Amino acid sequence: MTTRPTTDPDQTFRASLDLSNAFAGQIRSAGAEVLARLVPELAPYHATLHLTGNRLDLAGDEAAVQMLQEVVQTAAEASQDGASPDHIWAADAIAASLRQALERGLAFRVPGLRNAVRPKTVMQHAFMSALLAKSPPVVIGAGPTGTGKTHLALAAGLNLLEDGKFRHLVIARPHVFERGEVVTAQTRTDTAYDGQFAAIEDELTDLVGPEELKRLQEARRLEIMPVGRMRGRTFQNAYVIVDEAQNMNIQRTRMAVTRLGQNSRIVLTGDPSHVELKDEGPSGLAHLIDLVEGSDIARVFHFSAAQIVRDPVVATLEALYAQDNASGPA
User: Fold this and answer.
1) Could you tell me which of 125, 134, 173, 115 has the C-alpha nearest to residue 152?
2) Is-contact 252 174, C-beta < 8 A?
3) 3-state secondary structure of 168
4) Do the strands 2-7 and 298-302 form a parallel or antiparallel pair, or are they unpaired?
5) Is 180 domain-assigned?
6) How many domains would you assign to the chain?
7) How many helices, marked H, and strands, marked E, lie in the chain?
8) Is 114 within a domain?
9) Which domain covers residue 274, as residue numbers?
10) DSSP for 42-104?
C-alpha cells in the first residue's frame, strides 16, 4: 500500500492509498456504507473517502486524513491475515485503530511541558489543536467531567507561554458554595483563594513540576485567581482560562469574557449539565454558547460521556446520571 499526500491552497489535505486487488475488492463487496461508517468517528473533523478501482482517495482536515490512513492500513493488514470484513470494520476495531493513530503520530510534542500531550480521543485532538491555534479569540470546551478539557487547556496555555506567544497565563475559577458553608464578604464577591484551587494546582504541578510552577508564579507570568478578582482588570497579551465556567451566572460570565485586552485569548471549560449556582440565576456558560457558537469569534467543542477518559467507571456513572436527569421525577 502506497500513500501520496498533498495539500490544496484551500488547506484541504488529500491522500491516495493504492490498495491490493483483494482488499479493494473486499471494500467494494462490503458496500459504500463501510467507508461511510468511518466519517462520523472523526467528528468534529471532516473527511471524505472515494474508491476508484484500487485507489482510495481521502480528503479533508489533515488530522482526519491521517487517522483514516491508519484505519485503512490496519484494516488492510488484518485482511491479509485472513480476518473477515465484519471483524475488520466492526465499531470496536475502528475505535482501536483511531486510538493507535492518536498515540503514534498525532501526539503534541510541545515546549514548556515535561511530557508530550497524547490525546486519547478525536475530540481531544481537535480541542488541543484549536487551543494552540492563533484564532479565534474565544474557545469553549463543554461537557462532562473526565473528558480532559481542563488538562488540555492548561497544557496549551503553558506551551504558548513558553513559546512567547503570550506574556501571561491567567487561570480563574468561580467559588462553589458547599452545603452549610458560611457566606463571607469574600466568598460572596468570589475573591477568596481557597482549597477549591487544589485541582488546578495539581494539574499544573503534573505538567511542569513544582519548581517551574513556583518560578512562573514568582515572575508573575502565571496567575491563579478567583473569578471575582478579574473584575476591573484588562488582560493584555494574556492567555486566560476560566475553569468550571458553568458555575458563573450570566452577569459574571459577561464580566469575565470582556476582560480581554490586545493580543489575548480566553478559554472556558465546564459542564452545562452540572451547575452549582446558589440562587444567582441561570448559568452563563450555556447562555454564552448560544450567543457565540457558529460565529467567527469563537469555537465551541461539545464533549460527551462517551469521550470520558478518566476511568470507565466515571463514564458509566455520568451516563447513569444523565439518564436519570432526562427521565425526571415520576
Assistant:
1) 125
2) yes
3) strand
4) unpaired
5) yes
6) 2
7) 13, 10
8) no
9) 122-327
10) GTTS-EEEEEETTEEEEEE-HHHHHHHHHHHHHHHHHHHTT--HHHHTSHHHHHHHHHHHHHH
CA distances 225 to 173, 177, 286, Å, are: 7, 17, 22
- 265 and 224 in a common domain: yes
212 and 316 belong to one structural domain = yes
Q: Are strands 222-226 and 47-52 parallel, antiparallel or unpaired?
A: unpaired
For 112-144, the pLDDT digits (tens) are 898 989 999 999 999 999 999 999 999 999 999
53: left (phi over 0), alpha (psi -120 to 50) or beta: left
Phi, then psi, of 243 in degrees rounded to 5: -95, 155
Strand partners, 240: 170, 266
Residue at a domain's end among 105, 131, 150: 105
One-character DSSP codes across 125-160: HHHHHHHHSS--SEEEEES-TTSSHHHHHHHHHHHH
Distance CA 181, CA 268 (A): 26
- On the question of a cis peptide bond just before residue 44, with omega within 30 degrees of 0, the verdict is yes
What is the distance between the alpha carbons of residues 291 and 65, in angstroms, rounded to a whole number? Answer: 32
Per the prediction, the chain carries an average pLDDT of: 86
196 inside domain: yes
Element (H, E) at 124: helix 122-132
- Least trusted range by pLDDT, from 1-5, 147-151, 270-274: 1-5
| pLDDT at residue number 100 | 84
**Length of the chain measured in residues:** 330
Cell (9 digits) for 104: 503514534
Q: Please state, in angstroms and rounded to a whole number, the distance separating the CA atoms of residues 323 and 326.
A: 5
> CA–CA separation, 105 vs 62, rounded Å?
12
Specify whether 14 is located in the same domain as 147.
no
What's 53's domain CATH number? 3.30.1370
Q: Count CB-CB contacts under 10 A for residue 258.
A: 10
Same domain flag for 208 and 82: no
